[in-house]
């Protein structure tokens, strides 16, 4: 039991580190990207159709790649950013690249659900595009965006487990190195249980926060 804990605790911390840092940068990049996808559409507050089409195409290309292939392809870029393509910190780079387009689409969908009449009313009152984004779009969609963040966190967790195949660290790496290659079924089961617990807690907290923010 003690030897399992000695393996699980560092890997658990690595997984939380990967999820936390990856989620931070994913939200930092994906939120404005999702907003741009909406406001640059035809008949919206800042119509820029060429930019919209370009960003949409790039997002679709990245999202079409399987996670494991994307993680391998981003290896050289990760090496350029953090100095190595192996390890927990290096795994954050492909995790962010994989999760950002996904989250951007979620933000886009959340903003599309807002009644167009609210936006039109804001425009008629003389609100600037920035004011509409900050005071209308984001507050109205916040509950849905929080649910989107929750789904994204769970996706990042799944990506982090896959990253273990290429030495990304965390519970996925432990499950493969010890649970699979060394035939340690007990370690494999323990990793799976921990991953399930993380997902359940994340989903519960996300749902609870989204309910509090829901204005409907």
From TrEMBL:
Swiss-Prot/TrEMBL GO biological process terms: D-methionine transmembrane transport
PROSITE patterns xrefs: ABC_TM1
Location of this chain's protein in the cell: Cell membrane
Transmembrane segments: 16-39, 51-74, 80-104, 145-167, 187-206
UniProt keyword annotation of Transmembrane present: yes
Membrane topology: Multi-pass membrane protein
Cellular component per GO, a single term: plasma membrane
PANTHER family xrefs: ABC TRANSPORTER PERMEASE, D-METHIONINE TRANSPORT SYSTEM PERMEASE PROTEIN METI-RELATED
Protein name: D-methionine transport system permease protein
Gene source species: Paramaledivibacter caminithermalis (strain DSM 15212 / CIP 107654 / DViRD3)
Taxon lineage: Bacteria, Bacillati, Bacillota, Clostridia, Peptostreptococcales
């Amino acid at each position: 039991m003690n030897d399992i804990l000695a393996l699980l605790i560092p890997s658990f911390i690595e997984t939380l580190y990967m999820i936390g840092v990856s989620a931070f940068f994913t939200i930092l990049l994906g939120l404005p990207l999702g907003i741009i996808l909406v406001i640059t559409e035809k008949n919206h507050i800042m119509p820029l159709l060429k930019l919209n089409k370009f960003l949409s195409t790039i997002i679709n290309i990245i999202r079409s790649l399987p996670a494991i292939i994307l993680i391998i392809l981003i290896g050289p870029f990760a090496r350029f950013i953090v100095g190595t393509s192996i390890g927990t910190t290096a795994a954050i780079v492909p995790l962010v690249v994989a999760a950002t387009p996904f989250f951007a689409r979620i933000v886009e969908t959340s903003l599309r659900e807002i009644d167009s009449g609210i936006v039109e009313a804001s425009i008629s009152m003389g609100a600037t595009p920035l004011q509409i984004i900050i005071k209308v779009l984001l507050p109205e969609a916040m509950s849905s965006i929080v649910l989107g963040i929750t789904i994204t966190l769970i996706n990042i967790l799944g990506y982090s487990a896959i990253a273990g195949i290429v030495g990304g660290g965390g519970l996925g790496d432990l499950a493969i190195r010890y649970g699979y290659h060394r035939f340690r079924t007990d370690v494999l089961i323990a990793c799976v249980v921990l991953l399930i617990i993380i997902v359940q807690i994340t989903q519960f907290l996300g749902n609870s926060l989204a309910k509090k923010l829901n204005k409907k």
